[in-house]
Amino acid sequence: MQLDGRSLAGTEISADVCIIGAGAAGITIAMELTGTPLSVLLLESGGMDLDAETQQLAQGDITGLGTFPLVASRLRCFGGSTGHWGGRCRPFDELDFAERPWVPHSGWPITRSDLETHYQRAQEILQLGPFDYEPRSWDLQDSPPLKLPGNSVGTRLLQLSPPTRFGIRYRDAILSAPNVRLCLHSNVVQIVPEPSGKQIASLEVATLTGKRFTVRARTYVLATGGIENARLLLASNRVMPAGVGNDHDLVGRFYSDHINLDTAGVFPLQPNAAAFALYQQDSRARMRRYLGGSGRPVPVLGLLDLSAETQKRERTLNYMAELAQTDWDDYFLHAGRFDAETQTSDGSFSQRIDEAREILATLWHNLSDAVSRAFQDKSTHSVFYRILTLQEQAPNPESRVLLTTRKDRLGMPIASLRWQLTDLDRHTIRVAVKEIASTFGAAGLARLKATFDLDAPAWPIHMQSSWHHCGTTRMHADPSRGVVDADCRVHGLSNLFIAGSSVFPTNGSANPTLTLVALSVRLAGHLKRSST
């Protein structure tokens, strides 16, 4: 059933379970609860399709490292940010869940095995192939993994979802579910606890037309993404002055993303472009057959990674890298990376001077390669590649989402993102480049040249984030170290749960969607069991 919040002024709606946010996490939970005795209300800020007026509610400030504008990296409509998702999927590694002594604040209160069956269900939801990511399990004869000596660097596989657009793929399933009501154009502006502060009493919901109504439920699930989950909890401060779930000043902290950085050039020692074919972005067109049984072929992409043994020995974060074929402009000038339409930039003269200075530094750092390749005949121009780092971010309490004093049209404080990295992030990149260079050299494959000074104190201006908003309501068994427990329930509140990548204590090096969907399946199972 579909409702429109703009027609519900002054009313009160009740449900057994109210889910705030109809993105990947919220829709997954609603679908998993379909057919149960539970009445489910799914609230969505926007409509079925994106509209500019609602999307403006996603505006926010950037006060830390430069990243994409918040209004560009999130979508407020049914289906959420799956509307611009690239489809890359891989489960987190076993080590990602472990407490690593060299990674401060690491460790999940659950293990990889706790998610195993939920990962398999998530594979189905995301229209993927078998839950097997080992290269030996796939027919890769036409583009085999690189034969790399030693055990420092290896090949990991990603499966590529079509990608699944939840707003399209699961629209009919949600609308036809007898126990699910979808309420569009409905923005939660206040989570209201009981005076005791032990559970949530209601939600205040507003529309852009000025209408307001109330929702009461037995159980509430907050699933609005890594920025909005923190924003809404912090802004809900009438009963709890620091915000809901924020007794220990943790809401909004430990924000993490995946570093997206042109890191090094890869110059093959032999003219054999086919050797790197598995690692190219156009692998979406190469359908791979699973060797472990029948089933439809699935697009698979290869990436380089640091082995668990290397991470332990060198005390690094988890790391993976794409080998992207490149050209002179892309590699030496970072073409497309300095784009005022997508990157946070004031467009000022000083900003452009900084960008020009970085380009000149890159050219100087790579002078011999830049000159020789600039004057080559384009028809005989040799193929070379760049390493695109896509690594885990170290948990950092100073990397956070805060509230500003400015308000949006609904009276909600606007969020401010302060993205911060640490020395461990830099150390990981240095080790990765060294290990890949040594491994490629030993294999006689290629030589590497870092794009920039890996020891420079400042991060390159051309570094980007990956639109992966994680960690602002982290999971931990200890209430003084996490916002939610192992079941994703907010500490101290009996009926408020949080879904999505904001509960990740660490964000691994894999894209977050598969894991956040698996966690959502797991949470739905917990809600079903709790209702009986």
Would you mind describing this structure in some detail?
Helices cover 24% and strands 22% of the residues. The chain is built from 14 helices and 19 strands. Helix 1 packs parallel to helix 14. The longest helix is centred in the last third of the chain and has 20 residues. The relative contact order is 0.21.
Please report the total strand number as a whole number.
19
CATH architecture annotation of the domain at 1-53 and 77-126 and 163-248 and 469-532:
3-Layer(bba) Sandwich
So, the CATH homologous superfamily of the domain at 1-53 and 77-126 and 163-248 and 469-532? Answer: FAD/NAD(P)-binding domain
Q: And the CATH topology of the domain at 1-53 and 77-126 and 163-248 and 469-532?
A: FAD/NAD(P)-binding domain
Shape: globular
From the N-terminal CA to the C-terminal CA, the straight-line distance is: 24 Å
Radius of gyration: 24 Å
Structural class: alpha/beta
Number of helices: 14
Strand content: 15-25%
Rounded mean pLDDT score: 91
Biggest β-sheet, characterized? 8 strands, mixed
Which consecutive residue ranges, at least 5 long each, have pLDDT under 50? 377-381
The share of residues in helices is 10-25%
CATH class of the domain at 1-53 and 77-126 and 163-248 and 469-532: Alpha Beta
